[in-house]
Structure formats: structure tokens, C-alpha cells
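Annotated sample (chain length 248).
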Amino acid sequence: MTYEVFINYRTGDGEKTAALLEENLGHRFGNEHIFRASNAIPPGATYPEALIRAVRRSGLVLVVIGPNWSKHPRLHADEDWVRTEIQEAFTCGIEVIPILDGRTTERLNPADLPAPLQRLADVQSIRLDLHDLPSGLKRIGDILAAKLPRLKAVDRTPQQKREPEAGDVRNTIDEAQGNIVQAGSFTGDAGMVAKGNHGPTHFGSGDINQHSPRISGAGAMYIARDNRGGIRQNFGDTRDEEEKDDNR
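Output written by the structure step:
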């Protein structure tokens, strides 16, 4: 059986975090894609063969690093299975990601590791802070989904709605009858109907003058925009003005 994620851990130093990873990743991607020895190896199976076979068939190995991981005496023994699983992943060219368990776990120092594992200290790790566990587990799941296409295809995380971006167009039309067209660049004729209109309405091109001045009285004149042709003015009856001039 092929697994996408193999969880490597040491009993007594990171096993609880390994169980949390298995539970969370299994819920998100399906248990059949996650391998943790305690649950994945069936009764009666040969333990060493099952471990090596699972590592070789995995897409990625997560190595849970507890506070005392590099200080454990068995890490320097050739028969240590934690060490053997990591070495097998390196040999097969399978990507290995260290998971630092908690805030106090320090990054690995090559001087503390046996020679076959010293390259593990140079691999970028992910810290899983137990005080912000949901966020940390989600981040690990997101990273795995980005690295492993088969996991991304079975991801059960609800997709968030995209937030509107600048330039997006959002319209709301209520009780519309007939055709409605929205276009950034429109070519052709469009029929329009205006009902209950009060004041000037303009569907063509050019200017519209809605607030022209009110001018009245003899001699008053107002010209707006282009004037073509003659202009006539009516100054009214001037006789009263002439009589006033004679009596000065």
C-alpha cells in the first residue's frame, strides 16, 4: 500500500504530537494516506519489513523532533528504527521535514547527530507550538497539500470565498424586466426606456445643461454653447424712458 505521508517519531519523546498529526491529517486527507506505525501496521505483519516498505512508498516523511530527540542514546545505534527510517528516506530521495515539537525544542545541531543523519540539521523545519495547535496543524496540512498533488486532490478543508479585489464589479438589480447587459466595452445599439422621469434625461453623447439660469425682463439675453444663425432682442417699449429724459 502507498502512503502519502510517513510520520517518524520516537516513543516517549514526540509520540503524542505524532498521534495529533495522524489524527488531524487523517481527518483532512483521509486515514489511508497517513502512516504511523502504531496504527498502520496490521497484526501479524512483519514489523521491520512493513516499516521499510512504507517509507519507500511514501511521498514525504515527517520527523517529529522532541526536546530530547538528539540526546537519546539509541539515535547513535545502527539498529535504531527512528534512525533507520530517516536514512531510508534519504537513500530513496524522499523529502524529509523535521517537526519541532513545542516552543522549547531547539533546532538540530549536526554535532549532536550520527554522521548519516547530520544532513537533517540543514533541512528547513516547522515548529508546532502546542499553545496554538489548530493554526500549526493547519499550516502543516497546507504545506503538505502544496507539495503532494494527491493530497491536494482529496483535501476536505472547505474552500474559503475569495474576497473582492480592487476593480471587481458587483451589481444588484431588483425587479428587472427585459434584457440586462453588463460589459466593460459595449459596441452596438442598446434600447433604453425611462419611466417617471423628472427633469432632463440624456441617453446619447454630449453635454446636458440641467441648471440654466432664470433670466427675465426687457433686454435680457442668455446664450448657451454654440449659436448658429441670427440673434434678435426685444427691448420693449422705450417711450416712457424718453419722456423721463425730456423732464430732467
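Annotation: The beta strands are 5-8, 34-35, 60-65, 95-101, 126-128.
Annotation: Residues 15-29 form the longest helix (15 residues).
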